[in-house]
TrEMBL record:
It catalyses: L,L-cystathionine + H2O = L-homocysteine + pyruvate + NH4(+). This is Cystathionine beta-lyase, PLP-dependent (Beta-cystathionase). GO terms for molecular function: cysteine-S-conjugate beta-lyase activity; pyridoxal phosphate binding. Its EC number is 4.4.1.8. Its cofactor is pyridoxal 5'-phosphate. GO terms for biological process: L-cysteine catabolic process to pyruvate; transsulfuration. Keywords: Lyase, Pyridoxal phosphate. The modification N6-(pyridoxal phosphate)lysine is found at K204. Belongs to the trans-sulfuration enzymes family. The lineage of its organism: Bacteria, Pseudomonadati, Pseudomonadota, Alphaproteobacteria, Hyphomicrobiales.
Amino acid sequence: MSADAGVNTRLAHVGHDPFSYHGFVNPPVVHASTVLFPDCRTMETRAQKYTYGTRGTPTTDALCEALDELEGSAGTIVVPSGLAAISVPFLAFLSAGDHALIVDSVYAPCRLFCNTMLRRLGVEIEYCDPEIGGGIESLMRPNTRLVHTEAPGSNTMEMQDIRAISEAAHRHGCVVTMDNTWATPLYFRPLDFGADISIHATTKYPSGHSDIIMGSVSANAKYWPQLHDAAITMGICGSPDDSYQILRGLRTMGVRLEHHQKSALEIARWLESRDDVARVLHPALPSFPGHEIWKRDFKGASGVFSFVLKVDDAGRFSKKAHALLDTLALFGLGYSWGGYESLAVPVNLSDRTIRKAPLDGPVIRLQIGLEDVADLKKDLEAGFAAAAAI
Ligand SMILES: *Cc1c(COP(=O)(O)O)cnc(C)c1O
């Protein structure tokens, strides 16, 4: 494959050399704990590629190699969930007495992990404004060791200047991690912008079908050995069946994302034109505060965004918001995203310490699936009518 091959070409060919396994275009699913060695010397020196099931198989390698190619990383580990793809690198790089800076609009379960286990282990956790950019330098302490970003932020979609944050963090010897689940490596490559670690809930777009829980962590050359050691030390590994399915999902991720992107933007623009919507939080809309950063750094937008409903009963349990959501038939009420089907969620921002819930109305997050836009609009239209009737 030539170095300048297009993204869909790369997705069709990354990760497995058919002639490494009899010409089959897909890798074998290798179920394994034990791997045999031909003799004692090979065993004692571990002088062969595979040594034990937790340390990789041809199936997990095929996926990790595909992700390395897409992320431009030196090495990738696969882990049993997207949340583990956050907790494992944090445990790899943080020690008691260290200070970590986390963007306030972070994926909520990451905050729970930080506030409970990491604090219990003696790590100082501080949340920062996601739009702080290079100003993060003022929060650096002698013991700051890790900066965690997620762009756009969960639910409220704040864009982050990853290059400016990384440069400031690196001046203080910090590792920069980024949760890149929303953009996927097709629309943003964190390592190209200075981040050291790119994290994915491959549960989302790489899976694409709402039936797999898996995560990946990709590191640059500097941090790969420490990340890899942590996964081995902790006994964290991805299953062969899930790895196979995620690699299968990657083949169509480019065409799926194009559809998610186009439909989501069409619906976002339509929502923005409505009188019963206060604001639409979508980085590709020129009205969105982080739009310039998105336009400068990202190659596209996926299918998840939020909007603020204009209501006279703002707050978490707005009756109008509930009426809207309860009326939806194509949009299911469910967590996660990245699958083929549309979803809606009433957003709970009560854990925020800096980027608090907007005061102008309840926030509703949408995942725009692969359905036809006209049908999705009709569904939302019925929801808005139900809200108006309250
Ligand atoms: C869903 C999600 C995760 C966690 O993924 P799971 O596989 O559900 O544990 C992590 N980060 C972001 C941004 C997510 O949306």
